[in-house]
Amino acid sequence: MDSIDTRALLIVISSPSLLWVGLIHSTAIS
Q1: What's the maximum distance between 2 C-alpha atoms anywhere in the chain?
Q2: Tens of pLDDT, residues 1-30
């Protein structure tokens, strides 16, 4: 259970950050 919970937390935490990185890169390119 702990491993699944930690994975879920990592996904929830990393997903928004990846979106922000994508937005920053897309704006930087254009």
Answers
A1: 44
A2: 678 889 999 888 989 988 999 999 899 887
The sign of the dihedral angle between the CA atoms of 4, 14, 16, 25 is negative
Measured between alpha carbons, how far is 25 from 30 in angstroms, rounded to an integer?
A: 9
* DSSP label of 10: H
Place of tokens 């890169």: 25
Of 9, 15, 10, 8, nearest in space to 23 by CA: 15
- Model's pTM, two decimal places? 0.44
Q: Cα–Cα distance between 6 and 20 in angstroms, integer?
A: 22
